[in-house]
Batch of 4 targets.
Target 1
Amino acid sequence: MPEMTLYFALHILLIACAFGGLALAAFIHFRKRLHTPIVCPVGHSCDPVVRSDYSRFMDIPVEILGVIYYTVTAIAYAALLAMPELQTGMLGAALLGLSAAALLFSLYLTAVQGFILREWCTWCLISAALCAVIFFVGLRLADIGALGFIALFTETGR
C-alpha cells in the first residue's frame, strides 16, 4: 500500500469538506423547497435564519451559491490531486481567491446572524467552519503563507 503523503491527505480533507458543504447546502435547499422546518442539531429551528431576507444574494438563494462553490471546490481539488503540476498555475491561485471570497461571505453571514437577526443556525455555522478549513488548508497547500496570498492579489505591473 503506498505511503499517504501530507499532500494527499490535505487534498482528501479538502475534498471531504467540499462534499460535506455540498450535502449541507443541498439539504437546506431541499428543505426550503419542500417548505419543511429546518431543525438545527442543537434542537432549535434554523428557519428564522435560512428563510430571512438575508438568505438571498443578488436574488440567488445563498444555499445555491454554496452548492456551486462546494461543487467547484471538490472538482478542482480532485483535479489537483490527480495533476499536482496544476497547483502552481492559475488554478491554485483561483482556488485560493474563491475560497477567500467564500470565507469572507461566510463571516459576513455569521455577523448577520449574530448582530442583525440575533438568531443562530448551527448548519450555517458548520458551513462557515467548512469554508474556513478549506481556505486555510488550501493556503497551506499553496505554501505561500497569508502575506504571499495577499501579495498575489495586490501585486501590480503584471
Target 2
Amino acid sequence: MRAFQELVDEAAAADVSGWSFDWLNGRATEQRPPWRYSRLLAFELIEYFRGPLPHERFARDPHREVAAARRSGLEIVELRTTRCRMEFFEIGAVVYTLRKCAWWVLNFAVERHRARLERLDAHIRTHGTFVAHSTRTLIEVSRVPRRKAQQ
C-alpha cells in the first residue's frame, strides 16, 4: 500500500463535484440496497470523526417519517429499510468520501482530522479494511385524491 501522505494528498485533490463515486472503484465498496434509490448514512464512519451521536443515530426514524407523510395527506405504498456494509481499503477512500458527503462530518479537513486519519490508516494497514454500515430507507408514497366538496 502506498504511503499515508500520498493517499491523503491524492484524495484531497480529487474532484468531488457531481454525484459520481467512481473515484472509489478499487478503494472502497458498499453493499447496495435491494432497491435502486440510495439514501446514505454511515454512522460508524461519521461517529469515528465526530464522536458518539446517539440522538442523531435515531433521528431518522422511518416510522415517524411515515406518520409525518400520512399527516401531510400522503398514502404509504411501501416502506423498506436495510443496512448495507461499507468497506474502506485505504485512507484515501475515507478522505474522498468525507469530502464528497460533506454533511457527514461538517467542516471536514485533512489537517483538522489528521490524528484520527493516521489512527484509521494504521487500522486499515493492520486489518486490511475499515468496516462501516449505511442505513438506507425507502419510503414510497402516493397522493391521496382530494375529495370533492359536497354541493
Target 3
Amino acid sequence: MDPIVPDKFFYKIGEVAEITDVEPYVLRYWESEFHLKLTKTKNNQRLYQKKDIQKIRDIKALLYGEKYTIAGAIKRLRELSKERNTQKKQVKNQMSLLGNVRSFASDREVVQKLQSEIDEVYDILEQDAKELLPKPRNI
C-alpha cells in the first residue's frame, strides 16, 4: 500500500523519494525521460506537486510492477491519459444531463404553479362575469 501523501502544495525531491520509495537520482532521470514538468525554485531545486507524485507512482508501477520498458511505459501513460480525459468528458456530459433533468423538474414545477395561478384567474374572471351579466328577469 502506498504511503499517505501529506497535504501540502509542494514537496522536495527527498520527500518524494521517501513517499514513493524511489531514489532521488531515479526521480531526476524519470523527470527527463517522462518529461515531468516540475516547478523549480530560484536555486533550481525541484518542487513536486501531488499530481507529479501520482504520475511517479504510475511510472513505478509500470516499470517495476508490470515490467514495461521506458518506451512502453511512456506509451501506456499516454493511453491512460487519453482514457482519463475520455472518462472526464463522459462524467462532465452526464453531469450536464443531470443539470438538464433538474431543470426539467423545476420547469415542471413552474408549469404546475402557472396552471394553478391561471385557474385562480379564470375563477375570478368567471365570478366577475356572473356579477356583470344582467340577472335573468322572471316574466
Target 4
Amino acid sequence: MSWGRWTFVAFGLLVLCCLLACTSASGEPAPSAPTPTYSSSLRPVIVAARVRVSLPEQERPHLLDDALFTSLTGYRTLDYFSTRRALAGGAHEVILPQWVVDNRGTFIAFEGLATASEIGGSVWLIRHGRRRMARTMNAVSIGLGVQAVVHNYTEPLTSLH
C-alpha cells in the first residue's frame, strides 16, 4: 500500500487540530502580571481593593450530548464504509470531489476532521450557553448523514453482478 503525500498532510492537520483543542480547553487562568510596589513618573502606583468578580459557570456536555457525539462518530464511520462500497459497485461521489474519495487515506482524514469539527463546534456552543442550538445541529447532521448512508446501502451495485 502506498501512502500519498496528502495522507500525511491530512493526518498532520488532524493532529494539529487535536493539539489546539487540548490546549485551548485546559481551563487554566492566564497568569497575571506582577504589580510594582514602587512609584515612578511613568507608572504611578494605584492602590485599589481587589474585587472578586464571579463569572458564570461554563456548561459541560451532558450524557445526551455524549450520545449525540457517539452517534455522529458512528454515522461518519458508516458513511465511509457505505461510500467505499458504493464506489466499488460503480457509483460516483456526488458531494465531494472524486479525488478525495478515491484515496483512502484522504477520505479517512476528511471524515475524521469533519467529525472532530462537528464535535468541537458543538462543545463550543455548549460552553457558550447554546446547548439547544448544538443539539439541533447534531440532530440535523445525524439525520442527513443516516439518510446518505441508507441511500448508499440501498443503491444497486452494477459492477458486482
